[in-house]
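Hi! If you just cloned this repository, the fastest way to understand the data is to look at a raw example. We've pasted two of them here, unedited. The first protein comes first, obviously.
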Amino acid sequence: MTQTAPASTAAPPGPGPSARIHRAWFVAAVAFVTIIGAAGFASLPGLLIEPLHAEFDWSRGTIGLAVSVNLALYGLTAPFAAALMDRFGIRRVVALALLVIASGSLATVWMTEPWQLVLFWGVLVGLGSGSMALAFAATVTNRWFTARRGLVTGVLTAAGASGQLVFLPLLAWLVDHHGWRPATVTVSLAALSVAPFVWLLMRDHPADVGLAPYGGTYVEKPAPTPGATRRALRVLVGAARTGPFWLLAGTFAICGASTNGLVKTHFVPAAHDHGMPVTAAAGLLAVVGVFDVIGTVASGWFTDRFDSRRLLAVYYALRGVSLLFLPILLAPSVRPPLVFFIVFYGLDWVATVPPTIALCREHYGEDGAIVFGWVLASHQVGAAAVAFLGGLTRDLTGSYDTVWYASGALCAVAALMAMTIRRRPRPAGPLLVQ
């Protein structure tokens, strides 16, 4: 049953008691579609490495640098984006971000120099994607849901994987048959196509439509928070004084290094090094996306019921073991052991997100979304480092094997770090100090 504002409030009337579906679920659905529509940018980098190397004779390290700039800005923008959403609203920030993504992706069609790839794909797409990163999902979940937060976080996190599933086979086919330029145009059009849905259907706060959050009690919409940049930095300073922040940031940096930085960026060219067709390797990554949806939604369900620290330790340990076996599984054709790795890795891909967000919320209360934005920044810095170092290692050694083994060892470290996060929550008040 929908919960509406009490009579003592001045909120506009919401749906009556007969309403069966809370408006929060429609907002979550819009957010899901939006994340899917913008997911094409995350599917493309691994498909661009070989075509750009062949056409422009740019080294893999140079191309990896552009991808690393993209990943780093994606993360570093997130905490400021969360604060900007508090200041200007979710709808405005996300709609503008989609336009920036579309512009940066489209501009790459006319590039001729490496610095243009860094500017268009690295800077513009990085800034745009960072403005609607996982902090977007955390903000929507924190505002619109009190119950089922873990589940909704898992579903919205899985939206990125769903987008990968939708776009990756198509983009691989376009690159293989028509070149990389039509693929980048497709990404641009996809981002543009969902912008109207955000502008027309997204609402910033339950109080905008006279409702309580799903499973909670009605609260007035807070006044816009001025000084978004100052607030993001103050939250960082406050969080940095606590041990859980550094443990969460460290584990999530390893998460980014072993997923976006390594597998998403370098799996396709690594498989191609072993004689596998690009379309087949891209198809395997799409299968990762299928099982990522299952694993992340399940992780959200687990997060509502089990200790988040233990969940993280199990996820990182299993991921590390799987990466140690990958170098011996790659071959010219797709074989059952490699399919098993893809399924196993897919289930674990971003299963770490719901328990990480839950721990940020547990320790930092109403500033949890911004703290998670900073934790996400560390995720992307880790991803950026490995995106560059992976390409550089391939240039220097002719193989990716060293990077797979190193990432597996780092995941073991992350599992140990997760278990050392203390359980006693901080007070739920803000971290800001006057």
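Ok, and the second one:
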Amino acid sequence: MTQSLLHRILDYANRPDPYPIYEELRRTPVHHEADGPYVISTYYEIRSLLHDPRMSSDARNLASHTSDPLAEPGSAEGGALPPGFLKLDPPEHDRLRRMANRPFGPPHSPRRVDGMRPELHDIVTGLIDGIGDPGGFDLVEQFSYPFPVTVICRLLGVPREDEARFHVWADTLAASLDPDPDADPAERGKDAHDARMELGMYLAGLIEERRKHPGEDMLSQLATAKGGDGAMSTMELLSTAALLLIAGHETTVNLITNGMLTLLRHPDVLGRLREDPRLAVPIVEELLRFEPPVQLVPQRTTLADIEIRGVTIPKGAPVWLVLASGNRDPQRFEDPDRFDPDRPDIQHLGLGSGVHSCFGAPLARLETQFALAELARRLENPRLVQDPPPYRQNAVLRGPRQLHITCDGIRA
């Protein structure tokens, strides 16, 4: 029996290369099967809906008679905390996002991300130094995974001696995001619940400590801020910190790993980056178009009937916005299946758009630029051991589960 397009997107067998499915999907820009989600796959329609106030991110607006196979995947934040602002609509979303942004970026904290450059360099250098045998290593385990979570620990102000505990919690919660048909769901659920509780208790203690003895870190500023929007409650602080840990960490892991995989498949671009690290900026932008870490945005719901390309999406319907398909729409990008960091115009959807555009985008960009430039400079003649590599089960957060590389040496 022929699989539906929806099932083919979710089928793990297609994870290494979902792009032919997206090409087929774009022939019907508004795709709908039975009582399932409305799947939007073309660039301009996706961008329009990302900016449409009639679209909701709050699952409570979903009509009860509809079905969404990606509803609440993993529930990494868990029910013990209120929803993070990612899952809220204005005005609640806007209030929390404004409060979270004050200590993170312009105009209130314009140097927060840029000021981390020396620390990012030190973390990247330490991880590459620790790779060990250049003849064979897993980039995910030894570099892509520990790098972003270490950065988030430093950003929030987690004491260095506690960073290892944070790594364990991040590993467990990240694993809960991926479907695993071979695992015991009850055991997986318990592991994720325990990690959430331990993380929540730790953060609650850290928040209380920062309120008494604030420092220069982001958590201190969140815990003591009293602006026009008032102060975050402890529960709101906990959900915001958890959101930064999970959402920020997972997307950057995939962006770095997808980036290195793409560069190893395009050795000419890798060679150019080795000679000119400034090329990392356009390379990362093209990567966000060509191999975005978030392939699709599920859990959007219509607050009213919306007509798209002659199709009416009814109020309360689940909607998927397939960002990775829009990024390869030939109506928007010339020769979209070609990786080309010299494109004059890369207005991609890789970090979303509109009110829910990626909160951590400046940091994710900078982390990936540092990571790829230093890997290109220091790894001598790097080569893939396996292509395609084994991928994660997750259809939303798509990236290699492992990326085994061999090289002739590691430069000082």
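That's it. A detail worth noticing about the second one: The chain has one domain: 5-72+85-410.
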